[in-house]
Design brief:
The protein is mainly beta and 338 residues long. It has one helix at residues 3-17; strands at residues 25-42, 45-52, 58-63, 68-70, 79-87, 90-98, 105-112, 117-122, 126-136, 139-147, 156-162, 167-169, 182-187, 190-194, 204-207, 212-216, 220-226, 229-234, 240-244, 250-253, 259-267, 270-282, 285-296, 302-303, 317-322, 325-337.
């Protein structure tokens, strides 16, 4: 090895030892789209759902590895709040459609079969579906809130299951569920669902393969599952982060004073969080906050610099296939790591 090569190797080693590569690049700017959901089967097959800012109608776009394209949806929808798939030809979207009369919505689930999207299930009455997750193509859950009347104060939690043939409502006897916002799992017999603000008195609920139970009366806003545990945003506003290991032993996660809005983790050694932090302190407390994206490799969170051409530094949803394939979406922009 010559001297120049030796120097190059030494520099590379030093750079590697400085920590993980936390580059986040801009994939597309979408000037009128507010994204709330992401799912991908690979680097050339990613879906992003949400709604438009100007007309408050649902939007769904697809990334094929080179460009982002809008997708034609069946009928008129208000929003898409959740996405999950078992593969490129089996993708589900959870959302809401306008009711035939009045200002309320219908809870709907859409399905993509590899060629086109169709309406697969509409819950009787009124409501919204917020989240969808599955352990397999024939074992899919969706959550939300709704009821027989158009009065949201009378709505309760929605929990439905797909067995590979049909969607059915799942009774939740004994559970205090006024509404459910998120769902994730670590397997067919280890599924978690939570409620969130403005739905108050919502706890955390667990499916063990046989029945749903309420192991924790603590209010949690959202659930996120990784290979080695469960991540929960605590409190109605979801500002605090908790981790539950495989034995479901909880511990608080130190976010360095950041208020957490969403989180994604492949393991405890690879955690992304988006939220806000105080940018200027005053005599009476924080006078100005700023949006922040941060990453933890198992220790303290480190702020991540986002592309300067963004209209806002806000990130609303994070989802990934692995440590080196992570997607981010916020108002008007889609981003990717690395």
């Amino acid at each position: 090895m010559n001297r120049r090569s030796a120097v190059a190797v030494a520099v590379a080693a030093l750079l590697t030892g400085c920590g993980p590569d936390l580059r986040v690049t801009l994939v597309a700017k979408e000037p009128d789209q507010l994204f709330a959901a992401i799912w991908a089967s690979g680097a050339k097959d990613a879906w992003f759902g949400g709604n438009t800012n100007s007309t408050q109608t649902a939007v769904l776009v697809h990334f094929d590895g080179s460009s982002v394209s809008p997708v034609t949806l069946p009928g008129t929808l208000r929003t898409i709040s959740g996405l999950w798939g078992s593969g490129p030809g089996d993708v589900w979207a959870a959302g809401a459609a306008p009711a035939p009369t009045g200002a309320q919505t219908l809870a709907v689930l859409l399905h993509y079969d590899g060629a086109s999207w169709s309406t697969a299930f509409t819950l009787p009455g009124f409501g919204n579906f917020f989240g969808v997750w599955g352990a397999a193509a024939g074992d899919v859950w969706a959550v939300g809130n709704g009821g027989a009347t158009a009065d949201p104060s009378q709505w309760t939690g929605l929990l439905v299951h797909f067995d590979g043939t049909a969607w059915t409502s799942v009774p939740t006897p004994g559970l205090s569920i006024p509404g459910l916002r998120s769902i994730c799992g670590r397997g067919p017999d280890d599924v978690w669902a939570t409620g969130t603000a403005p739905i108050v008195n919502s706890g955390t609920y667990h499916w063990d393969g046989q029945s749903w139970s309420e192991p924790s009366q603590t209010v949690h806003a959202r659930a996120f599952c990784s290979s080695d545990g469960l991540w929960l945003l605590r409190g109605e506003s979801g500002a605090e982060l908790e981790f539950y290991d495989e034995q479901n032993a909880p511990r608080a996660v130190d976010t360095g004073g950041r208020s957490v809005h969403t989180v994604f983790a492949t393991s405890t050694a690879d955690v992304w969080m988006a939220g806000s932090e105080c940018a200027r302190q005053g005599l009476l407390g924080c006078e100005q906050t700023q949006y922040v994206l941060a990453h933890s490799s198992g220790a303290a969170f480190t702020d991540v610099t986002l592309p300067s051409q963004l209209n806002t530094q806000e990130v609303d949803v994070i989802w990934g296939l692995g440590p080196q394939d992570v997607w981010f979406a916020g108002p008007f922009a889609l981003l990717h790591h690395p």
